[in-house]
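Technical annex B. To support the medicinal chemistry partners, we prepared a structural model of the target in complex with zinc ion, based solely on the information shown next.
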Amino acid sequence: MVSYKELGLVNSREIFKKAFAGKYAIPAFNFNNMEQMQAIVQACVEENSPVILQVSSGARKYANQTLLRYMAQGAVEYAKELGNNIPIVLHLDHGDTFELCKSCIEMGFSSVMIDGSHHSYEENVELTAKVVEYAHKYDVTVEGELGVLAGIEDDVVAEHHTYTQPEEVKDFVSKTGVDSLAISIGTSHGANKFKPDQCTRNEQGILVPPPLRFDILEEIEKVIPGFPIVLHGSSSVPQEYVEIINANGGKLKDAIGIPEEELRRASKSAVCKINIDSDGRLAMTAAIRKTFNEHPEWFDPRQYLGPAREELKKLYKHKCVSVLGSAGHAND
Ligand code: G3H
Ligand code: 13P
Ligand code: ZN
């Protein structure tokens, strides 16, 4: 058993309190490899932002849990070396079993998500409470989820959103003891969050998706005042990346994300954590495809992973400064 505290990581409790009071959201960026991790740390150090490094169960399988854990430990040391000891959380994204959460806690994670949203309400309560009871012994914070996002969530595909029911929220939070709650108000995972026929066109001819259900968020804020809320599926799917990908041999169709303006609004509310994975995938793929196209003679991975890392860093900085508002808040 290794405690995250020995690794220099923090749990999410204090940073969420500060984010709530300061009306900003903490970025939760997924990572699977070194370049993504370097870009996240460099961006957040330079922008003086707290950060949540997220590992999905797919990432654990892909990269190996021991390696990822040492990379997160390395992230803390790297941030110090860069001259800014920002708060870093190592978080399990979409944990689906008690055993997985327990194993991550024993490995040095400072925060876990137990996603029981595909179970019945009663089973979700029971599973989440069990994880909380274990995690809190080690001062590890726990995120639960109520409501189901449309699209693919892990291996489960939901055709429509099941929005979070504000009536259930208070009971869920008090019965489980969770530290934060992921809700469903219209976001979804991946790069195809809306079908074009669900969208309208603005004066510039740009597709505008249906708005998030801020009315539900407001109801939730009323029943659990001051409680940290989490938004999954919050990539904006920048169209410039989609265009670069498609201009360089890619085939992305109908890729539509959450408008940044909605995320800015959410960041000022009880939403204290915003999950972003797909935008990083798009930035990286766009940069790599462009380099391949422009320099077919290159074959040193650093020649294409280097520009990809730079593009990622630019994206993460933009999120901290201009969308979530977390820049400048590492030492609140
Ligand atoms: O919510 C899911 C995250 O985007 C992680 O995706 O399971 O493909 O690593 P993944
Ligand atoms: P995106 O697919 O919108 O980036 O969402 C990521 C996420 O919610 C990770 O849990
Ligand atoms: Zn998610």
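Notes passed to the chemistry partners:
The radius of gyration is 19 Å.
The chain has 13 helices and twelve strands.
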